[in-house]
Structures
1.
Amino acid sequence: MNENDKQIVKRKYPLKRIYSKIVFYIARKCPFLRGEFRASLFKSAGVKIEKPSVTFIGFDVAFDDICPENISVGQKTMITEGVKILSHFIDVNHDDLEHMYFGKVEIGSNVFIGMNTVIVRPVTIGNGAIIGANSVITKDIPPYTIWGGNPAKFIKNREINQDSNKIE
């Protein structure tokens, strides 16, 4: 065995990444945290959350910890238990599966994302949208619409009551 075979490849892990991984783990796995506090933890780890004090993030929600800065969440958004949001993806058009690319996941304000939903593409979810439980999001969701399924399909539009300015 020569000297080159004995070398151990050391990965460089910056202190910020170590901090981020620890915070992601605590925010995701601690069942006693309030949703607003969990949102604040995710924000401190790099996810762009507009107002964590009015955003709810449920237990076991997993934000992509490779590029958390590519994920943004608007205010008054509710992300329920078990949701997974990715911001890096593999390009399936190449043979070797090593072609990874990064995209932005933008979640608007007043959005509801149902339990165990998975976001697997760079997408924009418009303001006021509702995503049903166990959905797989692979394309952009227009504002004030309801989507669900695997892959998610359009169900119906939400209507705004002009008299009371409430969404129905």
2.
Amino acid sequence: MADKTMTRADLTEAVYHEVGLSRSESAELVESVLGEISDTLADGHTVKISSFGSFSVREKAQRVGRNLKTGEEVPILPRRVLVFRASHVLKDQINDDHPDRGNG
């Protein structure tokens, strides 16, 4: 498994090195892109990023769950959940980076 988690600061630093903007401009750009994605999803729309994947919001209906300790049934309220589907390009890239892993 990966030892490192990419953070906003890492994204900002990558934009700084790759694009050549100042660090503050890079941070503004990253925040702007992430904000636009978040706002679009909050409005219930899908975000598709070519060769990466799609983010969408799915409505989940109310259902009955169970408290695992007591066995008591409890209602799980309706909610919206975020779904990410990786593109085939991303899936292929991930699998090409690890040729020693088989399928299944």
